[in-house]
């Protein structure tokens, strides 16, 4: 490889959807060596073990980190990177800084709790079990964050400039465009980050009109389609059905993005009198904080939402909404058994306050459980959705007698067609596309479509592999 040729190396989110980390070496100066995203591996153990192994490149060879957005699989490794000696700035949009703060502190608490639990039970091979990072480490990482404005070029190093663009995926999410001036020629490379949906409520559409040489593109929904179900109609039908049954509607929801979409939909349905004004309870401290971030970051919202908020009203706040922050307030919801909606986390019922609501509601046939997100294989949510007669929670088998429903289409991710639309909105087709952040079948389906429909050389990124730009 020519010494002056910029190099890209994938350190995560290769043939999988977590651990997003991509190193870019744009020149010999430390400031020209950067990392796009710094995500945590999640899911199967062999992936999670990568969080504990040392990074495949030297931490002191990374000058800066640029974050596309605040999801854990894109920023959750930062505290570990800082703990291992990273000293540079972490650039991201203002709203991403706020989401990342919430996510990182929550992640550190979970790591601490897990280590404490393992020590109490004597599970760990290491004695004592240590958290991947602590709250103090997370706070130190947060101290490295520098916020940038969308659309404004910033200088990263002597050869490297960056511009952040709207990605429409969650509050503050961006695609990142790098301009690299090396000895022989200048190059532009665009990292899509996770891409949102066109015409979705709350957030602006993903930006377009790019002129770049290479693209690193996510492929989460390659080969998959959201379909054309009207999610508002579907939600109204399920709310009314749950009311006829006489019980409570329990919605497990991700705290970032999904909870806000459901609140938006419930507000619309209530305003249009398509559902009665029954009480809605949000019972997730993180969901409450993230919803409040939406109220404070007007500039990250779409025009309609921004306008309503500037008028002193928010489309995210339906009438008869009750916020339950403390554990005591959460327990009070155990006494609610008639017409009401409870929204709680986690979205796949893998942990969090949703568990004690499930223990209370699942055994009774008058209640309804509504899933509004993808339920990964091996999660409690998947078992319930697939009709398992019992499910294990806190060591006890809980019978599933409640009605179980699900709605697709509340996704924060562009589907196969929308990913292609995003590529077609470039001013000119790029010379090369790298695909990351997807499972094998999604990567293959999207590669085939990009080659056939856009006519661009497309490479599936491999773990630790280096490519010249
Ligand atoms: Zn994401």
Compute the average pLDDT: 94
Structural class: alpha/beta
Distance between the termini: 11 Å
Strand content: 15-25%
Here the CATH topology of the largest domain equals Metallo-beta-lactamase, Chain A
Principal-axis shape? globular
Bound molecule kinds, no repeats:
zinc ion
CATH superfamily of the largest domain: Ribonuclease Z/Hydroxyacylglutathione hydrolase-like
Question: What composes the largest sheet?
Answer: 7 strands, mixed
Query: What's the structural domain tally?
Result: 2
Order of strands across the main sheet: 6-5-4-3-2-1-22
Q: Evaluate the radius of gyration.
A: 22 Å
Uncertain residue segments? none
**Percentage of helical residues?**
25-40%
CATH class of the largest domain: Alpha Beta
